[in-house]
Automatic annotation (TrEMBL):
Organism encoding this protein: Alishewanella maricola
PANTHER family per UniProt: DIGUANYLATE CYCLASE DGCM-RELATED (PTHR45138:SF9), REGULATORY COMPONENTS OF SENSORY TRANSDUCTION SYSTEM (PTHR45138)
Protein's name according to its UniProt entry: diguanylate cyclase
Keywords: Nucleotidyltransferase, Transferase
Catalytic activity, EC: 2.7.7.65
Organism classification: Bacteria, Pseudomonadati, Pseudomonadota, Gammaproteobacteria, Alteromonadales
GO MF term (any one): diguanylate cyclase activity
């Protein structure tokens, strides 16, 4: 085989490899006009090399953020450095459909890419080459793991019956807020402890399943009555705790009274039987005399006990 024949064979081998490799290869000139488009890109875009050659990249693929991609490519042209993109920053450069059977639930192909310079005979960068990697499998697995971890975090912090915070998670937020108020004593936050009146009678009369339903309905009222910044938790069996951030005692009393009225008006049906319940509330605004979280809770509990002593179904504001 002559040297010329060997060179032709090498070129043929190289072109065959470029067309069959399972990586997207795109070469553009300085004006971002496409010069090379390999088989991977053809298979996923449905466009042949002849259809894309000399076409402006951003006209063919308007989904590409031109400003973002040019910012990525400018250092490659100027400094002859490589650039990289990963799917966590931007899911893809080219929006291709996902056809992988294992990750068939993905709407599109997740992509990583490498962008490197191609120089001419004078050593000047004349073209850019994009290498597009299909990382859909890894991306979907990672996203699924993140979702699972998030669900586990929510399960560990949420009361199963009421779907509001459990006691441990709520107390963590109480401690954080107390520490914040220690640093900024000019701020006001209030704590409400509340308890379903005569709840044992509900269980004894209608059964524990009915009691669970009552707790769920009451927690729904509490949750729907609060602002997004307020933090409610199930503190005990039929006892709830509500932390009202940046809220004075008067404001907290107004909210507690509104919740009390809504619960008083609840019609809870269980096995075609009507269950009516009421709730008692004790609240206190944090002040300098309260030295720790436990004392804050105990003070609100004293106000709650006062509501119980005075006939239940009422709101009591603690006064030193």
């Amino acid at each position: 085989m002559t040297e010329q024949s060997a060179g032709i064979a090498d070129i043929h081998w190289l072109m065959d490899m470029l067309q069959t490799v399972d990586v997207g290869l795109v070469i553009v000139n300085e004006d971002y006009r496409i010069q090379l488009w390999n088989g991977f890109m053809e298979n996923h875009s449905g466009l042949t090399p002849r259809q894309v050659r000399e076409h402006y990249l951003f006209d063919l693929f308007p989904e590409i953020d031109e400003d973002w991609l040019r910012r990525k490519c400018d250092p490659v042209f100027l400094l002859k450095n490589r650039a990289f993109t990963i799917w966590e920053q931007r899911p893809y450069i080219f929006r291709f459909n996902n056809y992988r059977p294992i990750t068939g639930n993905a709407d599109y192909m997740y992509q990583n890419s490498t962008i490197f310079p191609i120089t001419d005979s004078r050593g000047e960068v004349s073209h850019l080459c994009f290498m597009i990697y299909d990382v859909t499998d890894a991306a979907i697995n990672k996203l699924a793991l993140q979702q699972t971890n998030q669900q586990l975090r929510e399960l560990s912090s949420t009361d199963y019956l009421t779907q509001i915070r459990n006691r441990g998670n709520w107390e963590e937020h109480l401690k954080l807020e107390f520490d914040r108020l220690q640093r900024y004593p000019q701020h006001h936050s209030s704590l409400i402890m509340c308890d379903i009146d005569h709840f044992k009678k509900v269980n004894d009369t209608f059964g524990h399943a009915a009691g669970d339903l009552v707790i769920q309905k009451v927690s729904d009222v509490i949750r729907k009555s609060l602002r997004t910044t307020d933090i409610a938790g199930r503190y005990g069996g039929e006892e709830f705790a509500i932390l009202l951030l940046d809220t004075t005692a008067d404001q907290a009393q107004y909210l507690a009274e509104r919740v009390r009225r809504k619960i008083e008006q609840l019609d809870i049906m269980y096995n075609q039987q009507l269950i009516k319940v009421t709730m008692s509330f004790g609240l206190v605004e944090r002040d300098v005399n309260i030295q720790n979280c436990l004392q804050w809770i105990e003070t609100a509990d004293k106000a709650l006990y006062q509501s119980k002593q005075n006939g239940r179904n009422q709101v009591t504001l603690f006064k030193a």
